[in-house]
Design brief:
Elements (H helix, E strand, L loop, with lengths): L1 H24 L6 H6 L2 H33 L8 E7 L21 H18 L1 E7 L2 H12 L8 E4 L1 H9 L23 E6 L2 E7 L7 E5 H6 L5 H6 L5 H11 L12 E4 L6 H5 L16 H16 L13 H5 L7 E6 L1 H9 L7 E4 L13 E2 L4 E3 L7 H12 L6 H4 L12 H12 L1 E2 L10 H9 L5 H20 L4
Parallel strand pairs: 1-2, 1-3, 7-8, 10-12
Antiparallel strand pairs: 3-11, 4-5, 6-8, 6-9
Helix pairs in contact: 1-3, 4-14
């Protein structure tokens, strides 16, 4: 609200000035004697009247805003209840905190104070307390499996990761958001404060809004210029960034630069996880429900394309798959001899700071595959919340938590501050692309259910198996993992 309040003050000052100037110019021009007879007292009186009118308008606007907020979040008495939220890390601020420095890692004291002040206000408004409880990763899993299943959840809100959250949802342990969130709530309307995720046929999960930051393709801009190729971002803007163009660029980049008969520059490189962007950009997903999609046409088509890059065109750098060589594969692009690689904000920054990348790089979305009409660029990640079945008055719990989360009073400049990403990217265009990619994601918990995606990927890029052989030998393994997750609760 800081910038918004400054702007409001400036606008109010401008209005007052304009009103004063307009007042001086209305009616016939006063004669000289009337000008001389106008006293300083009357001038001050006029100014005071203008200030009073402006103050009254501001008060009325503030009251209207408070009224609108009360309509969205009407007060009720929770009888001194403590809303308990299960976490696997220490989170601030809850009712046990009295000072912003209770958070030992606080950096923005002003923003922290806003959060704490908002909490104090809500404690009074709803007559309740808030407690974040660090019960550990395993502790949350155990609590979900025992207390919720028994109909007596230990916590009102659970923080989850899809690695264990999918099983809870599949077994009916979470309430749909629509069953407790008021129709006028932010999560059901504007999504300025909260977002919800559709998964397994309904929207069971919600999370705070924030600046999206998705998976993208990094590219060596110096190498693009050296090869006299058009900038991939320009191709993307024209709707021409597709598999065919990507393959053409990768082939052009792959070569033996030192004349020893062995290629030492490649079109594409990275670890298996970063290659999943090709699946999503082709409209595919491997596991988003009880039935495997590894054998779906979109996924088969994607792995046939990757197989062609690695084993036919030979324009992709071999990924060893050996654990102790993981970083060498993940950050191999920093050597400057790979044209494209799967990237993210943190990976780009680490490549520069820890692995010596000293060339100009930019990012572009994964190329659109032939089966995609509206491509996605990554899988849903991060932490989410669920309200378990058996929670007392879940609608009150949710309303409190949404209003608690809205400490920034809908000011998007705070939570969508793109300057946060400036240390990771080299241009505004790069940031915009990363944000867009972060917004276009799909649920895919293939690795969350214990399936060895790396071994599957490795069997194809090494030529050990054909795509059809690899899928045929792995689809049942994946299905068994899904069956285990989606089995009925006992």
């Amino acid at each position: 609200m800081k910038k918004r309040k400054k702007l409001t003050a400036l606008l109010m000052a401008a209005v007052m000035t304009a009103a004063s100037l307009a007042g001086c110019g209305q009616g016939d021009a006063p004669n000289e004697s009337s000008q001389e007879s106008q006293s300083q007292e009357s001038v001050q009186e006029s100014a005071e009247e203008s200030k009073e009118e402006a103050s009254a308008d501001a008060t009325e606007s503030s009251e209207e805003a408070d009224s609108a907020e009360d309509d969205k979040y009407p007060a009720f008495d929770m009888g001194g209840r403590t809303i308990r939220v299960a976490m696997w890390w220490d989170r601030y601020y809850d009712s046990g905190d009295t000072d912003v420095n209770d958070n030992p890692d606080v950096t923005d004291v002003e923003m922290a104070q806003k959060q704490l002040d908002n909490l104090r206000r809500l404690e009074t408004k709803y007559n309740c307390k808030l407690e974040f409880v660090n019960v550990s990763w395993d502790g949350i899993k155990e609590s979900i499996a025992t207390s919720i299943s028994a109909g007596k959840p230990e916590f009102d809100i659970y923080t989850i990761d899809l690695q264990f959250g999918v099983s809870a949802l599949a077994n009916g342990l979470a309430l749909p958001v629509s069953s407790y969130a008021p129709a006028t709530s932010d999560v059901m309307t504007d999504n300025l404060v909260m977002k919800k995720m559709e998964i397994l046929g309904d929207e069971y999960l919600f999370a705070e809004q924030g600046l999206p930051n998705g998976a993208v393709l990094g590219y060596n801009a110096d190498l693009i210029k050296e090869l006299d190729l058009e900038d991939p971002q320009a191709l993307y803007e024209r709707g021409e960034w597709n598999w065919e163009k990507f393959e053409e660029y990768c082939i052009a980049a792959t070569k033996d630069t030192d004349g020893d008969g062995v290629d030492d520059q490649w079109g594409y490189g990275g670890v298996y996880g970063t290659s999943m962007g090709f699946v999503y950009a082709n409209g595919g997903v491997i596991a988003d429900g009880p039935i495997e999609s590894l054998s779906s046409p979109e996924v088969v088509e994607t792995y046939n394309f990757l197989d062609k890059l690695y084993n036919v065109d030979k324009c992709a750098k071999y990924f060893s798959g050996v654990d102790d060589e993981w970083n060498a594969n993940l950050y191999g692009w920093a050597n400057g001899n790979i044209l494209f690689w799967g990237a993210s904000a943190w990976l780009l920054k680490a490549g520069v700071e820890n692995y010596g990348a000293d060339f100009e790089y930019h990012v572009v979305p994964f190329p659109q595959g032939p089966s995609a009409t509206d491509p996605a660029y990554g899988a849903v990640g991060g932490n989410w919340y669920m309200i378990p079945v058996g929670t007392e008055n879940p609608e009150q719990v949710y309303q409190f938590f949404e209003e608690y989360t809205n400490w920034f009073d809908y000011d998007q400049e705070i939570i969508y501050d793109k300057t946060q990403l400036e240390p990771y990217f080299l241009s505004e265009e790069d940031i915009d692309i990363a944000v867009m990619a972060g917004e276009k994601v799909v649920p895919d918990f293939v690795e969350k259910v214990g399936f060895d995606l790396g071994a599957f990927h490795q069997s194809i890029i090494t030529g050990e198996m054909t795509v059809s052989q690899a899928i045929e030998s792995n689809k049942q393994l994946l299905q068994e993992k899904l069956d285990n997750v989606f089995k009925e609760s006992e």
